[in-house]
Specification:
With about 80 residues, the chain is α+β, with helices and mostly antiparallel strands. Helices cover about 35% and strands about 20% of the residues. The chain has helices at about 25-45, 70-80, and strands at about 15-20, 50-60, 65, 70. Strands 1-2 form a two-stranded parallel sheet. Strands 3-4 form a two-stranded antiparallel ribbon.
């Protein structure tokens, strides 16, 4: 068990970005990390060195919208374009 005995407050912003796993590139992820960190620094004066940005990629079968998952919705959209 860890006890924190000081009254000093340490702000460690945490940003969680969730996107469907559909080809987000490492460069795009880095841009999201940089952009989120810059936004927190500019708007809330947060320290970039203690800002955490996590990007979760979710399989389309595991992402639901309404009554369907994204996999089903993508298939339906492709069929409707025909």
């Amino acid at each position: 068990m860890l006890y924190h005995t000081t009254t000093e407050r340490t702000d460690m912003p945490y940003v969680n970005i969730r996107v469907t796993k559909e080809g987000v590139t490492p460069e795009q992820k880095l841009e999201l990390i940089k952009g989120s960190t810059e936004l927190l620094q500019r708007v809330l004066n947060k320290n970039p060195a203690t800002t955490f940005v996590i990007i979760d990629e979710v399989e389309t079968d595991n992402w639901g919208v309404g009554y369907d998952n994204v996999t089903t919705l993508r298939k339906q959209a492709a069929e409707n374009k025909r």
